[in-house]
Amino acid sequence: MALARMTRLARQAKRPFGLCAKTTAVGILGLCFIFVWSIFSSPSSSVTTQRESFDDIAEPSSSSRSIPLPPVNKSNSNQPSTDSESKKALESKQQETHKVNNGSAPAGNKDHQNHHHHQETAKPVKRQRQQHGTSEKVPSSEGVKENGQEGDSATDEDEEEAGEVVDGKEEVGEGERNENGDLVEVENEEEEQDEGSVKVEKRKKQKFKGPVFDPNGHYSWRLCNTRSKFNYIPCIDMETSSGKLQSYRHTERSCPRNSPMCLVPLPHEGYGTPVRWPESKLKVLYKNVAHPKLADFIKRSSWLVQSGEYLAFPQNQTEFKGGVGHYLDFIEEMVPDIEWGKNIRIVLDIGCGDSSFEASLLDKDVLTLVLGLKDDLVDLGQVALERGFPAIVSPFGTRRLPFPSGVFDAIHCFSCGIPWHSNEGKRLLEMNRLLRPGGYFILSSKHDNIEVEEAMTKLTASLCWNILAHKTDEDSDVSVKIYQKPDSNDIYELRRKKNPPICKETENPDAAWYVPIKTCLHTIPLSIEQRGTEWPEDWPKRLETYPEWMSNKERLIADSSHWKAIVDKSYLAGIGIDWSSIRNVMDMKAIHGGFAAALSQSQKNLWVMNVVPVHAPDTLPIVYERGLIGVYHDWCEPFSTYPRSYDLLHADHLFSRLKNRCKQPVAIVVEMDRILRPGGWVIVRDKVEILVPLEGILKSLKWEMRLTYAQDKEGMLCAQKTMWRP
To answer: Entry's PANTHER family (predicted)?
Structure first.
């Protein structure tokens, strides 16, 4: 009995203890759940904050009431913004912030140049490819509210969130403070890879808490001291002499460690007002393009002559014996389907010559883009731009050119000096990528080489190119070969040797920014919903024709109407620009080419370079489909052109889009000063919080403010560059 009672007492004593233990365990589990939930919910709220940090971007209506921008701080404008003590304090704050946010010491900023050299050793990352014409939203004229704000606020968020579909390199966070000392947050994103489902770090994203430009910043300027002096191209030219090397240019695009913050000097003899179009086709001011190597070249050439203060281009003296007109007719006779100006609208000309080829094609409504090679130390590309012909400068070795795939109707090479058969034929594979299905590759030379001929025959056969014609012109003694790219995939299957192989389906043919040339063939599109299955309409009908693969036709039409109204009612009449002096124009943030289309329809004497940023939705194929030209570019780096190349720069909400990308947005303004001619114009449309400090920066450069107006949070700034140099 005593034992039984003791047992019951023991059980009764255990019951309360068991209940207490269970209650305690439940409480601990609850606290753990709350702790884990709070940790995983932080990135989500952080992303939400990032998206909400962008205000709705509006287009100021041309008919709206204009008011001046708020005043800009003008005190001590010639003094530097920071001294050595403030820099040390800023560095210490950066280290403290980094330790608090990441729990480790700062790893340091990776510059673009260093990252480019080591990008192949970085962890592979899966990229999300955006469908052309579907990932972006276009502001329509009907969607603009009375207060000047667009009705569709998701437009810019979608654009900002879109993948970098043409960028072949990853960016690394710049630290926890930008150059202006603005606080930023850094967060790591992880994404699952295709192979092995291994999670890798994608990149560090920044969320800038401060403005793009420091509203209280003060700037002082100095001249660049580089080897190429007044012809300095930052990412192509070496800043200093490289010993006994004859060339002062990089073999591949390689940007300086820090974006240049100096001003390119004017030529030694000064810079004169450029000769206006169309007279510039025949002559340009010699002092605007003069340098020693060009002077030596003039002595050996007959197609350009120094005549007093001008550099003249006699019409009866060209690189083509018998005249360039005869040369073009000869090509068209060889292949009648090449109808210049109708079937053929967009041409890529490899290497710079006398530009008579471009001038004659322009008379036939053919827009030719000149690819000036980095080995052209005579800088004939600069002469072409001074004459008013579209041109860019680029190395052409192991990386893809900054164009989308399948956009050129024809590619022309006249004694361009490129060994197409060398390096496994990679350069010719790049031409194959750029040509439209059914496009033409025109190869002309004055001297045939048997070994080169055999190598080219073997290489073009492996690409399944069809030799349409091979003939030597008796008048000019020029041998012309015309190849055609296949327009279907059937012929690829008939090859005995599948070399080069067919590219993988995951390989993006449009990825072109720091992307190496691939030794494979991209398949020809088959479905009508895919770009490249049909040849575009004849010019000028193709400018306003939207094929089946463009899914958002209504938005494209609205975008065209939107820019036509702005150009006709505001730009051409209301801002005081003498458009007869404008020839070379750049749209620094083009979407569908609406601005270029509207401007080219109203002003026949100009052309527009449409630049699609690499971080934006890939809309450049649409630009080419409309019969316009453009390139990919990252505005955190200098552009691939000569100083003083453009008469007008147009930037529609460019700076607000680069807020999360560029380490030093002021360097973009310096780049604008480099590529714009003295007397040239800039039109900037953006938020007032960006335009106000931007006005101060331009004034520190001695630019003349011609027009500023603001409406609510949006505004426009129009300024003209002067001859001033420090």
So the answer is: METHYLTRANSFERASE PMT28-RELATED, SAM-DEPENDENT METHYLTRANSFERASE
Q: What pLDDT band is residue 375 in, cutting at 50, 70 and 90?
A: confident
Query: What DSSP string runs through 16-39?
Result: HHHHHHHHHHHHHHHHHHHHHHHH
Q: Which two tokens stand for residue 343?
A: 């079937």
Amino acid identity at 191? E
Coil, helix or strand at residue 644: coil
Taking the C-alpha atoms of residue 652 and residue 644, their distance in angstroms, rounded to an integer, is: 21
CB count, 10 Å around CB of 25?
Answer: 10
Q: CB-based contacts of 520: which residues, under 8 Å, 6+ apart? A: 429, 500, 501, 502, 503, 504, 507
Nearest 5 degrees, angle CA 635-CA 265-CA 634? 5
Q: Name the residue among 429, 436, 374, 428 with its Cα closest to residue 404.
A: 436
Q: Across-strand partners of 144?
A: 150
Sorted by sequence, the CB contacts under 8 Å of residue 336 that are 6+ apart come out as none
Provide the angle, in degrees to the nearest 10, between the axes of the packed helices 688-700 and 666-675. Answer: 50
pLDDT digits (tens, 9 = 90+) for 192-247: 334 333 333 444 444 545 688 988 888 999 999 887 789 899 998 876 544 444 45
Tell me if 162 sits within 8 A of 129, measured CB to CB.
no
Please tell me what DSSP assigns to residue 198.
Answer: -
- Evaluate the CA torsion angle 32, 38, 41, 47 in order and state its sign: negative
Question: What tokens appear for 303 in the block?
Answer: 């197609």
pLDDT confidence of residue 215: 85
How high does pLDDT run on average in the chain? Answer: 78
Q: What is the mean pLDDT of residues 75-91?
A: 41
Q: In b/e form, how buried is each residue of 615-654, taking b as 16+ CB within 10 angstroms?
A: bbbbbbbbbbbbbbbbbbbbbbbbbbbbbbbbbbbbbbbb
pLDDT at residue 69, rounded to an integer: 63
Which of helix, strand or coil describes residue 119? helix
In whole angstroms, how far apart are CA 69 and each of 92, 686, 692?
Answer: 36, 12, 6
How many helices (H) and strands (E) would you count in the chain?
17, 19
Q: In the numeric block, which tokens belong to residue 622?
A: 């649409």
Which pair of tokens denotes residue 202? 């994608």
- Facing residues of 460 across strands? none
- Give dist(CA 160, CA 130) in Å, integer: 13
Q: Degrees (nearest 5) of the Cα angle 353, 424, 491?
A: 95
**Tokens 């207060």 -> residue:** 147
Kindly write down the DSSP assignment for every residue of 570-589, as one continuous string: IITTSS---GGG--EEEETT
Range with the poorest average pLDDT among 9-13, 465-469, 542-546, 688-692:
9-13
DSSP state string for 488-531 = SSHHHHT-SS--SPBPPTT--TT--BT-BPPSSBPPPP-STTST
Nearest to 358 by CA among 319, 402, 309: 319
**pTM score of the predicted model:** 0.76
Rg of the chain taking only CA atoms, in angstroms: 29
**Structure confidence at residue 26 (pLDDT):** 73
CA dist., res. 717 & res. 683, Å (int)? 6
**Among residues of the chain, what percentage have pLDDT more than 90?**
50
Average pLDDT over residues 242-259: 70
CB-CB contact of 150 with 712 (8 Å): no
